[in-house]
Amino acid sequence: MDTSPELKALAELIRSARCCTALTGAGVSTLSGIRDFRGKNGLYTEFDADKIFDIEYFRRDPSYYYNAARTLFYTLDEIQPSIVHIGLARMEQSGLLEGIITQNIDLLHQKAGSRRVVEIHGSPSLHYCLNCMDGCSPEDFDADDAVRGNPAVMGFSEAAAIVRAGDMPRCGICGSVLKPGITFFGEALPAKALKNAEGLARKSDLMLVLGTSLTVYPAAFLPEYTLRDGGDIVLVNNMVTPMDSRAILRFDDLETVFSFLTSEAG
């Protein structure tokens, strides 16, 4: 196992941090076998990026999204969290991690046991009717209460079973196809999540930036808040990022880093 001075320095930074947080991207979940979007074997090599997550195209033909996403998002019960998901959950449970800001929409942080997860690109945990819930965001109502009391919304497990069977989840009021609560192109990012993410980033004296190339905004700007408020960032990614020169430590391999951190935690 790699026990380089840089990894030991990282462990010490985490132990001594007043408020350590993590920003996670697709690279964290590719370790679980989930395809990324823009990589050489990513989802966008098979499906049109201008259609699959475009809100206007979804309104015209929701089947394109559901056909593309069926094996990507709706088989999550078969996918296990990666060593990074598990490591971050253990850090939170040990009091070493304040929370996670994630660009991912796969619910694997929650599956690993993390409790404070800010999903800045929305979440598939709820599917809702664009007609009957017009003007509402999934953030506007409690997920459990909504699923129990509103036929215009559906929880992830029920929606996933329908999608895996080759159909699409539909509204119990008007019959329209339900949309997942993830943010499509043409939609605003969830305002409450963005506010929470900015607050967490500003509070952090150490942010672990994991598996993201920091090219998608506004998520890519979150480390800047940490730096501007006097904190440090650590980058772990297998490609260069615009923030590389500003990181206190920089690593290429997530699995190596979290194997070490896991062993350090005993």
Automatic annotation (TrEMBL):
Q: Where is the Deacetylase sirtuin-type domain?
A: 1-266
**Which SUPFAM superfamilies does its entry note?**
DHS-like NAD/FAD-binding domain
- Binding positions for Zn(2+)? 129, 136, 171, 174
* Annotated EC: 2.3.1.286
The annotated active site, in chain numbering, is 121
Gene3D superfamilies named among the record's database cross-references: SIR2/SIRT2 'Small Domain (3.30.1600.10), TPP-binding domain (3.40.50.1220)
Q: Name one Pfam family in it.
A: SIR2
Q: Which EC class is the enzyme in? A: transferase
Q: Which InterPro entries match?
A: DHS-like_NAD/FAD-binding_dom (IPR029035), NAD-dep_sirtuin_deacylases (IPR050134), Sirtuin (IPR003000), Sirtuin_cat_small_dom_sf (IPR026591), Ssirtuin_cat_dom (IPR026590)
Q: Which domain of life is it from?
A: Bacteria
Keywords, in A-Z order? Metal-binding, NAD, Transferase, Zinc
One function term, GO molecular function aspect: metal ion binding
What PANTHER family does UniProt report for this protein, alphabetically? Answer: NAD-DEPENDENT PROTEIN DEACYLASE, NAD-DEPENDENT PROTEIN DEACYLASE SIRTUIN-5, MITOCHONDRIAL-RELATED
Q: What is this protein called?
A: protein acetyllysine N-acetyltransferase
Q: Give the species.
A: Breznakiella homolactica
